[in-house]
Amino acid sequence: MRKRIKQHRLLTISMSLAVALTANLDVMAETPDIGPLPPLKINQAKAELGKRLFFDTRLSGDSAISCASCHDPKYGFSTNKALSDGYPGNKHFRNAPTLINTSHKKVWMHDGRIGTNLNDVTRGMITEDYIMNMDMRIMQERLKQDAVYLDMFEKAGYGEPSNGKVRKAIPEYLKTLTSRGAPFDTGTMSESAKRGMALFTGKANCTACHNGPLFSDGSSHNTGVPENFDIFRDPFRHQAFIAYNMFMGNENYMNLKRDPGTHVQTHKADGSDMGKFMTPTLRELKYTAPYMHNGMLQTLEDVVEFYNNGGGTDSNKDTLLKPLHLIDSEKQELVAFLLALSGELLTTEKHVWTDAYPNEYEPIEDWRNVRN
Ligand code: HEC
Ligand code: HEC
What we know:
Blueprint: H1 11-21, H2 25-30, H3 44-54, H4 67-70, H5 118-127, H6 136-144, H7 147-155, H8 163-174, H9 183-186, H10 191-201, E1 220-221, H11 230-233, H12 235-247, H13 263-266, E2 277-278, H14 300-308, H15 328-339, H16 367-371
Helix pairs in contact: 3-7, 3-8, 5-8, 10-15, 14-15
The protein binds heme C (2 copies).
One heme C is lined by residues 59, 65, 67, 69-71, 84-87, 92, 94, 96-97, 99, 102, 105, 108-110, 118, 121-122, 125-126, 131-132, 170.
């Protein structure tokens, strides 16, 4: 049943056929169909405010960086660096994920440690000392000194600028960042991509973990991605890594030489949960290289090769991963299918929002150099 080819156009027909022909409906529920994302209801005034905040460097402690410094529209609102930058004086120890379609998620971060809502993720990003290192009380005062913000908060129905409203407005903007025009959604996939889809849902069994409209089961697995040792070589990254592990209550954090992943949630004494990471969405991969939680795989060809070898080497590796024995043309078809899950590049200009306010806070090309 897992291997059933699932095309959303045929969803209704195949569902009723499945109901008629199979007794085992539980298995179906395990692997939700791949298909288009549902539309979201958006409040335009709130989203416009959220957009201005997203690109505003005044939201970081020393006004050096904005959300867009690490979630850059050019790279599908992610970074093209294996490991993300951090607040000046720090660097991060993980790849910055895409924010496109993030509103559709239920659990956030590579280790799934935030399972409430995007307001909480936004607070974490602003206040975390190795991310934006901002005291939200200072942020609130800064915003109150800007006449444009006073106007925008008022128009959004929020009254005066406040921390709580910032944490609402930014997620409203994030809702506008959704896939647009992906060949998979528009029914314009090439023949090669269609064959890739048959492999994806069939022989290669990618849908075991990458399923539903986001192509993610919202769960975590150990795929054996190799460690990125830049975390431990670079003291700027290592200090952020230590701070994070100390805060998350990870054992032996001073000597830890691997990213524990979802161990932060389960803390199994035998360590069998070490190195599990959340299954990411496969939408918009065209823009978001390099891949995996630590950017260790450079291209989609590398990713397909990785899975063709049955994943990496790890004693906790998921038993679903087995060598696939794909021939070269099949590997190319799988890549073609993955690329068909990407739509047009979302630039700030192309947003459907009619900008009532000019955007003075375009991302700076390389903000690290600007500061030095
Ligand atoms: C200094 C770099 C940096 C800045 C600035 C930054 N982020 Fe992030 N962001 C990251 C990294 C790295 C992660 C992944 C962290 C992890 O998994 O532990 C992340 C994760 C996220 C996620 C979770 C995505 C997912 O799919 O799980 C969201 C949402 C997010 N950031 C939004 C924001 C917003 C909104 C801002 C501005 C208020 C912001 N970020 C500022 C680096 C940054
Ligand atoms: C056992 C579950 C599982 C299976 C099966 C699986 N994946 Fe994954 N996939 C994951 C997890 C977990 C990650 C994240 C790993 C990490 O961050 O270290 C991932 C990451 C990826 C990424 C990187 C995405 C990004 O934004 O970094 C791609 C691409 C991908 N998988 C494609 C595939 C393809 C193609 C197949 C089938 C050949 C497949 N996966 C099979 C669980 C799985």
